[in-house]
Here is the input.
Amino acid sequence: MSLGDVTYELDGQRHTLGDFLARPSQIGFIVVKDGTVLLERYAKGNTRASRWVSFSVSKSVTSMLIGAAIQDGFIKSVDEPVTRYLSRLRGTGYEGVSIKDVLQMSSGIAWNEDYADSQSDVARAGASNGSKLVTYLGKLDRAHPPGKVFNYNTGETNLVGEILRAATGESASTYLTNKIWQPFGMEADGNWLLSRSGGELGGCCISATLRDYARIGLFAMNDGVLPDGTRVLPEGWMTESTTPSKGASFYGYLWWLNADGTYTARGIFGQHIYIDPANKVVIAVHSNTPAAVGTAYHKHLDRVVPAVAAAVAN
Here is the structure.
């Protein structure tokens, strides 16, 4: 059977992967099993050389860079307080908040992530970093004790980027290049959007080719070990990163978790890296939906990807 004939069900109707690939919002779709590309498809006007913005997929990459910083000795542990690296947050609601709390989006700080609200926190500060971001977050109230309640917060993932820069003394893009991009053999240059202050956003906007998105998935699935055997991430880091948090069984260290042991990096407008470590399957998707979340395409995406993964697992 051709992979295009793989079926999935949504709202009582059967659909095929071929149907999904014909949807107008579908830009790129790649399936990798045991390191071999089984399917690779691009919409008209796009090729394997096309770079596409990942939006919040970048959060999962930033999470792995924190792991690399721990492996390199720049950070001792995710249990260290945020204020050890960002002293300007001392005396704010971030007192007692650990790096782990921020990675799990459970700092307890009040934050509104409504993309449709022009007055929400994400609209005001979601694209900020540096002193502007730290100042904004430092003024927010605490809503819950740290580590107890999940609340999706792009601002704090940008804060993770600030922690990374403070700990390593390098820009996030330089660290990514040296630790993952070049040594793991990405085939094309990527880029990382800079804020007005000149720093990368830890929570957003790495652009890369579809194949290199799949390689990000392979790097994660390999627990951060390079082809030559060099370990970039601490041993067991990805298992730790994909362990359900106390605040949300569906979320780890900036990774979305599924009950069957698979996990994903997700970005608005339908960006997706799906990883099935048990069956050595990675699926990466580029999309261009008319709304950030909640479209019919998103519903199909959430059904078709695991269906394809299951079909190639055997």
